[in-house]
Amino acid sequence: MKLKTEFITHEIDGVQYLVPVGGEAFSGLVRSNAAAAFILDCLREDVTEEQIVDRMCRKYDAPRAVIAADTAKCLNTLREIHALEESE
Fold first, then answer.
1. Relative orientation angle of helices 49-59 and 64-80, to the nearest 10 degrees
2. Which H or E run includes 75?
3. Residues of 68-88 as b/e, b for ≥16 C-beta within 10 angstroms?
4. How many domains does the chain have?
């Protein structure tokens, strides 16, 4: 999966925002915390959820189960706004 080209990220004063720039139905901004911003950065290339969790575990000092749950929640939010291009 990866971030659709119809969405871009933009940083303002250290805060990352996800912005739709295409014809997607979602017409808002998503303000990312540090972990969500890290996930969005991972999604600049084609990655699996497991690869994102692995990268998060290397970066953050938290139990893998917590990181996996938080990653899943973030990815589900991105799915809800149709921001992900998912591999078959």
1. 130
2. helix 64-80
3. bebbeebbeebeebebbeeee
4. 1
* Residue 47, C-beta contacts closer than 8 angstroms, at least 6 positions apart: 1, 2
DSSP SS3 for 7:
strand
- Residue 63 vs residues 10, 38, 58, 72, 88: alpha-carbon distances, Å: 29, 17, 11, 14, 29
Q: How far apart are CA 56 and CA 50, in angstroms?
A: 10
Looking at the whole model, is its pTM more than 0.85?
yes
In this structure, the dihedral spanned by the alpha carbons of residues 60, 75, 40 and 22, taken in order and rounded to 10 degrees, is -170
Q: What is the pLDDT of residues 13-33, one digit of tens each?
A: 989 999 998 766 777 889 999
| Cα(43)–Cα(30) distance, integer angstroms | 15
Task: Domain of residue 36: give its range.
Answer: 2-85
